[in-house]
Amino acid sequence: MTATRHVIGLLLGTEEDWPRAFEEILGRLGPVAAPDGSRHAFDCERITIEPFGLRDRPRYHLVIDRLAYWYYHPREWLKKIAMMDGVYLLNSPFTFQSMEKHAAYCAMMRLGLKVPETVLVPYKHPVDNSRYAYTAARYNQPFDLDAIAGQIGYPLFMKPYDGGAWRGVSRISNPDELHAAYDQSGGMLMHLQKAIDFDVFARSLSIGAETMVMRFQPDQPMHLRYAVDHSFLSPQAGAEVVTISRLVNAFFKWEFNSCETLVKDGEVYPIDYANACPDVALTSLHYYFPWAIKALVKWCIFVLLTDRRVKLDMETDRYFAIADEAGMSYQEKLGAYRALADAYFDSGRYQDFWAGKQAQLDDIVLDWVAGPAFDELLIQTVKSVYPAHEHDKFIAHLRGLLGLWVRDETARLAAA
To answer: How far apart are CA 379 and CA 368, in angstroms?
Structure first.
């Protein structure tokens, strides 16, 4: 039987590790049967950036975008191929404005989530616009930065409304630190956000209908931030973190995103959950890297073989109706949000689709990670990231963590 071919495009910047891993696993998996028995094969291409006609037909059926959050030319191409050609995108370019954190905070506050108290303050330095001086003189109101901080309460964080990778983030303990951080903010538009004295910091990576919740240690260097810890949350808190992660994604139509939450005395506080280019680097995810690649392959195949269509409508009223239901408790609302998210990601159908195929993919990924091809990728990645005098240290570090994953995965599959 001749297989139907699908082309997956990778829109990339500087990344090399996970794209190579994705291409390798997709190639090793080979053709996959759809629910109707038809055979489907997958080609993976790295997209080049060039002029495009608005009526040009793309060759891609699905695109994984890691570039357009900062590079506007390919962003406009993504909008065109989604709107005019129905190409499936990870993620939607139409909600990038929400990925500047501010709109995402507003949306989840509107839904009743426990986002810490947050205030947006004006720029420290004037906007580079000839109309600014007149507008500011007539309409900008003076404000008392100390009074705002006092209302929020110390400690607090000052961070850019559109931040990423911890850029410009300061923990503020007193008025002197407040003014020093604000003076240094320059042309960045800043939030002041109440600090939560957390018990544990969770970072969850969601890819389609799957979520991995990881213990995150923000005070550690990047290679140590994701701790291998399978029981750091109670079952209730863990379920709430997963629900919040998938709710955010379903609300904004994002399918490849990470969510940061703080847990204190069993309460879950989402603090950062709009990441257009979530961290999937081998050098930081280490133990969790095979899961991420596997989940990405699974979601792309599911989308293409079930003819899942790109959804451009936000449908926010369905979420707001739950938020405005006076008779529902917080936990009941979370349950209703989870149902909407599961429906958006077609979670039941996704599980059924992979039920008979999961074992083959598990074996492929395990065999690859345990073998020489993955070790070569690991070595090349370390050499591209770290200075020469640190190569041996980080090769050993990553081999140890991936070796632990191989042992754990081998035991898990043997017990299945």
So the answer is: 15
